[in-house]
Amino acid sequence: MSVLDKETNSERKNGVAVIKAEFIISDHTRTLSLECISESDKERLAARDGDNGSEYNDKGDESTSQPYKKQKLSNSEKKRLRGQNKARPPPFKHIREMNLCPTLIDISESEELPICGNPKCSFLHDVSAYLAAKSPDLSSMCYVYSTQGRCPRGASCRFGSQHLTPSGRNIINITLHEKFRETKSTFNQLDKSVQFSLRKRHYDFSKSDSVIAKYDRKSKEKVQYRHSKKDLLQNESKGKEQLTKEVSGENNTLRDVNDRADVDFICKVDSENDNGSENCADGDSVTSVGEIKRSGAITDEDVIKVRTEERKRVEWNGKLYLSPLTTVGNLPFRRICKEFGAEITCGEMAMASSLLQGVQQEWALVKRHASEDLFGVQLCGNNPYVMTRCAQMLEEKTQIDFIDVNLGCPIELVYQQGGGSGLLRREKTLESVIRCMSNVINLPLTVKTRTGVYANKNMAHALIPNFQEWGASLVTVHGRSREQRYTKSADWKYIEQCAQLGSPLPVFGNGDILSYEDYEQALVNSPTVAGIMIGRGALIKPWIFTEVKEQRHWDISSSDRLGILKKYVNYGLEHWGSDTKGVENTRRFLLEWLSFLHRYIPVGLLEYPPQKINQRPPYYRGRDELETLMASPSCADWLRISEMLLGPVPENYHFLPKHKANSWK
Hints:
It is globular, with a radius of gyration of 31 Å. By secondary structure, the protein is α/β, with parallel strands linked by helices. The longest helix has 34 residues, at 206-239. The chain folds into 3 domains: 3-90 and 577-663, no CATH class; 96-183, no CATH class; 320-552, TIM Barrel (Alpha-Beta Barrel), CATH 3.20.20. The relative contact order is 0.11. It has 25 helices and 17 strands. Helices cover 38% and strands 9% of the residues. Strands 8, 9, 10, 12, 13, 14, 15, 16 and 17 form a 9-stranded parallel β-sheet that branches. Belongs to the dus family. Dus3 subfamily. This is tRNA-dihydrouridine(47) synthase [NAD(P)(+)]. A zinc finger (C3H1-type) spans 136-166. Its EC number is 1.3.1.-. InterPro entries: Aldolase_TIM, DUS-like_FMN-bd, tRNA_hU_synthase_CS, Znf_CCCH, Znf_CCCH_sf.
């Protein structure tokens, strides 16, 4: 083996993607973009060197046009510029008093100008003054108006020149708008009456309360039964030394009291009689010990009714499942993935407690697009009371195909409160959550779990055999523990073990799928799985679903990738709104997605395709300027891409990347 081959193999083993030599940038020097670091980090640097607006490079000096004394960053300062930006503030805050009153936004030419009925309203009410002070339009074409015939943002739309009169009245394309209304595109909007009943606690949860109360009662009976049986056995062991005999039947035969220890095996619980009497083989009625009025095997049939024939059935096998992705797995992104071939989609993780409080932001996570033909909602909670009520409400008030229980969320706050992966440590609570939820709904109930909490202690294999008995219709196993996060490769051999133990319950596998070869290898390593869920791979290259279906590596061009971003932006404006707030929300989520998209390495640049998900490339240039820009790990370059699609970034806009490493150019 040549020296070059040895170096190449070493790079591949060390997680470095091998780029063709002609594209590698060998003399790149990283510089820190001050506009992409937090205010606290800025203050620390300014306090040390003075606020001269310079940019620091990774060698510890500054890149300025004027001479400046070069000082290296200390180890503690370097550490502060690593890791993650915690508790990131929203990138943009719009001044409320500069917004037009909602009653005046969407007024057609034929309507009279309404009068705001709120005497304390702090919004603007002078339409002419608002239009005069309004920021210039970003484009002459409004995507929402072009597709729906009416833009609901009206006078506040940043693309309003296409559908606004000089006086701020909204122009309506009646034919197109009527056609749009006939084919509803978005479902699961929060109805105001439902929101009011939730906030005032008037919503009828009697169905859930009945299920939970029944489960609690039966659980207590089980515990009391176990305790009484334990006491009985202890008393019998003591009585072995002093045998007590009793007369039996007409022959006055002596019988050992210890024979009563077999009462569990010769007696049957009279299921139709709740007074505690039992039918025994000899025809006698036996009275139970203490308060317990039952003996014998206690099944769950009277606790949780098995209603398989009533439950909606879903054919899961072999389908491509897009993982529920917090923050980035929003509705516009899911629409993109559906167009590329995703078959099952699930909303972002929603907190059950917030949904029950009618929180508008949380309800936005359960919205469903018409293209999502198999769609579910993922819930996170830490007790059966909240989770069961939320499941009942979602089935009654939304159009969804299944509900997923989150057992994988690694967020510290959620974990410490006993939700997400914290439920893996609380098996009894987990059982009550799944049993009660599955009994209160007719929809399929699915579960998404990690291997466990700690890297060296797998737990999923012990729980999965119980999930079907408890009421789950599908389980997805993410092949990493909470502790591992994404630092280790997914364990597909363990996923196969879980799938075998869970059979006939369908088990999906999840982790490290970035190409159709990864997909096929996962099926080789785990032949028992019913299907595969794709998460980060879809964020890095959403066309992975097409690659899997067509079994090919798609060397997609930079212009095609930009077209995907344009489509995402249009979907975002339709979803979040085309006013200033909606535009900047779209920009924010676009930037969050670009923090994953930039990790894609074009197939034509790789020496040994396909790219592996945990491989990182050296600095490289693309085949054109746009491809080079899209490969940049710098947040400053992501902002440039957003400006190509959404216009200039506002002066007070400050997006902080999740990882501080993305603050370097």
